[in-house]
TrEMBL record:
GO cellular component: membrane
PANTHER family: PEROXIDE STRESS-ACTIVATED HISTIDINE KINASE MAK3, SENSOR HISTIDINE KINASE
Entry EC no(s): 2.7.13.3
Lineage top rank: taxon: Bacteria
Location in or out of the cell: Membrane
PAS domain location: 109-162
Protein name per the record: histidine kinase
Histidine kinase domain ranges (all copies): 226-427
Gene Ontology terms, MF aspect: ATP binding; protein histidine kinase activity
Chain ranges of the HAMP domain: 52-104
Origin species: Runella aurantiaca
Length: 427
């Protein structure tokens, strides 16, 4: 029962008793009866005034409570001139001002944090109390080549992505470096903060690929330049001597043939070193608008004769929207030639190479039905001088990597299932 109802009930009962008593003395003392009626009326008036003064603060308080419940911190009350009422209003107004200030500060901090996460050069994944992903910033989406809709409200371990699978095993406070596909390297750290008494986890991803590749290129570049210098100096001098000796008339035919073999071997050695030097001397890309579908068709036509001899078919699945990028035409053509050549060698005979473009995300996929990549060597594929071919130099994929990284494009090479190896370029 409300306090106002209790108060009114009490006043009514008291005055009904008073009226009853006044009726009892009506016959004996009429003057006292009239006086008692005047007293009862005055008492009712005073009770009504007290009721208003007592209940009005409570009504105002309830109005303020409803405003707080609705998170409306703009409701304030004016003073009435009554001490108790004004004291209550003053305290309430001070509380509302403090709440409004605190909420404004929290909202500003929240918006700042959201903006900071959104524009951060570090990939960030936020998780709820059950460690399901609640937010993923644009940098993390770009680094992992995933869309937010595909991962939100899902546990890391339930998402089929090699990096996210590795992240699902991170412990709080642990920092780890993850190498993906032998090319992309991430520094990952897991931490937590307290929210309403429970820990909420977040993971930060920092891409180290560019720094590692730059250090790696600097190291092997010095070796290649030193080797090229020594080989060129030696080959030039030796070839000069061989040319002079071959031109002598008194040479026996078998001696001349042996000298020519030696000269040809020197020339092969010179070309061998030039291939390595090309990786180091790769020029800065001269970017211009490039229709990737048109370039794929042109390069496929160039490689079609080789493919036909091995009964390999080309298939094309281009998106409805033309995929146009800013890139160096000659360098991108070199990338496609090397990728197609590797796919043909992997298939060997009778197979298919599929060229596919997508608009969201913007990427090119080259899918072959070859024997695929052996387990355990994916992490070494793009390492300089590494090759699975018997006479391979390990230059082709390194050159591809350098060109695409210099353009700022992402790349990966996976055998997703038997008979399906995918080379992916993310623009």
């Amino acid at each position: 029962m409300k306090l106002s109802t209790k108060f009114i009930s009490f006043i009514v009962i008291i005055h009904l008793v008073a009226v009853g008593l006044s009726l009892y003395i009506f016959k004996k003392e009429p003057l006292f009866f009239i006086a008692s009626e005047v007293f009862i009326m005055l008492s009712l008036f005073i009770a009504w005034q007290l009721y208003n003064e007592m209940i009005q603060p409570l009504n105002l308080l309830m109005t303020g409570v409803e405003a707080i419940k609705d998170r409306d911190f703009n409701v304030k009350f004016l003073k009435t001139g009554k001490y108790e009422m004004d004291r209550l209003i003053e305290i309430y107004n001070q509380m509302i001002d403090q709440l409004r200030t605190e909420r404004t500060r929290q909202e500003e901090q929240h918006f700042f944090l959201e903006k900071l996460i959104h524009t951060s050069p570090t990939g960030i994944l936020m998780m709820d109390f059950d460690e399901n992903i609640t937010a993923i910033n644009p940098k993390a989406q770009a680094m992992l080549s995933i869309q937010a809709d595909a991962v939100l409200h899902r546990a890391l371990s339930s998402i089929q992505h090699p990096v996210l699978q590795a992240l699902s095993h991170l412990k709080t406070g642990e920092s780890r470096t993850i190498n993906f596909n032998g090319l992309e390297t991430y520094k990952c750290q897991k931490a937590h903060f307290m929210d309403r008494g429970f820990p909420r986890y977040f993971i930060m991803l920092e891409e180290l690929t560019t720094e590692i590749l730059a250090a790696e290129k600097n190291a092997y570049g010095k070796v290649i330049r030193m080797m090229a210098h020594e080989v060129n100096n030696s080959v030039g001098a030796v070839n000069s001597i061989l040319d002079t000796t071959i031109s002598l008339e008194q040479n026996q035919p078998d001696v001349t043939e042996a000298l020519q073999v030696a000269r040809d071997r020197n020339e092969n050695l010179n070309q061998f070193m030039r291939r390595f030097a090309d990786v180091v001397r790769l020029p800065i890309p001269h970017k211009e608008p490039l229709n990737i579908s048109a370039l794929v068709m042109k390069t496929a036509s160039l490689m079609s004769s080789v493919a036909k001899r091995q009964q390999i078919r080309f298939e094309f699945n281009f998106s409805d929207d033309d995929v146009t990028i800013a890139a160096d035409v000659s360098q991108m053509e070199q990338v496609l030639i090397n990728v197609i050549k590797n796919a043909i060698e992997s298939i060997e005979n009778d197979g298919t190479i599929m060229f596919e473009t997508t608009h969201q995300p913007l990427q090119l996929l080259i899918i072959d039905t070859g024997k695929g990549i052996q387990k355990g060597i994916e992490e070494q594929l793009f390492s300089p001088f590494f090759s699975t071919k018997r006479n391979g130099q390990g230059v082709g994929l390194t050159l591809i990597r350098e060109i695409l990284v210099n353009h700022g494009f992402g790349l990966s090479l996976h055998t997703e299932q038997e008979g399906k190896t995918v080379f992916r370029v993310r623009f």
